[in-house]
What we know:
By secondary structure, this protein is mainly α. It has 15 helices and four strands. Helices cover 78% and strands 3% of the residues.
Amino acid sequence: MHGGVGRNLGLVVALVLLCVVGVVTGGDRFASLDNVMTILRLAAIIGVLSIGMTFVITGGGIDLSVGSVLGLASVWASTVATQTMAEDVHWVVMVLTALAVGTVCGLVNGVLIAYGKVVAFIATLAMMVAARGLAEMIANRQTQIVDVDAFLDAVRGDVVGIPKIVWVFVLVAVAGWFLLNRTTFGRRTLAVGGNPEAARLAGIKVRRHTMYLYALAGLTAGIAAVMMLGRTGSGSSTHGMLYELDAIAAVVVGGTLLAGGRGTIIGTVLGVVLFSTLTNVFIINNLSTSAQSVAKGVIIVVAVLLQQRLAARSRGA
């Protein structure tokens, strides 16, 4: 418990220091309320993906396909047929389509990994390639403009001055925290990630639970696709490109063990906001994306080294 608090405190200190750098170098441009909302808006979509990724990694897995699944869900939800149905019935049809596509892709991953015994890295890599290819085929490599005004009105705009997609991120994070820390599903996830054989002997249906974890990651990819449709007003096979790497980075930096068995939603949220703030500081100071990538890489390596040191210390204790 104390270790978790210490890790989160370290992330908060790092975030504060980064904000100080932003204020010193960017002045009012960084410290303005509009820029804070820009940072949160930038963090929201990756943040939702990262919540799902936290569960998968805590359960001892990995999912390389969430970015491509996001792209596929955004394309499927913005086809002419789907939009026509949304106009005839209700704009929620587009939301349900995106959620269904994401969840089904996650279930396919889960079935292949849990019951087909395919290594998670390979199964999700295959889904990453296949989902992106299917999205390109459906969209014919063209951007599909969203014309359903009721949908755009519902997902765009602010509530009490905060963008709706940020509220979605907050709700998903709260739900994820509750699921991981206050339910048997969360306890089983920790058990499966810590020691699958011991979990099986304790009566947990490990394969079924693993399938559920990947379905959950797919669901969050579907939610992120809806947010992307609202933010960009279009569905595209290029949406979510390499987002899975950003999500994994945020989860690892947040303190979730790559080996599984320990996860933290609060840490993941802090990790996402940390990277979003870092990106914002680089943009405000007109620094290259190459330097930004180097900085991200250094942060990830430092985070993993700290994880290993903490793990070694806890084993020694």
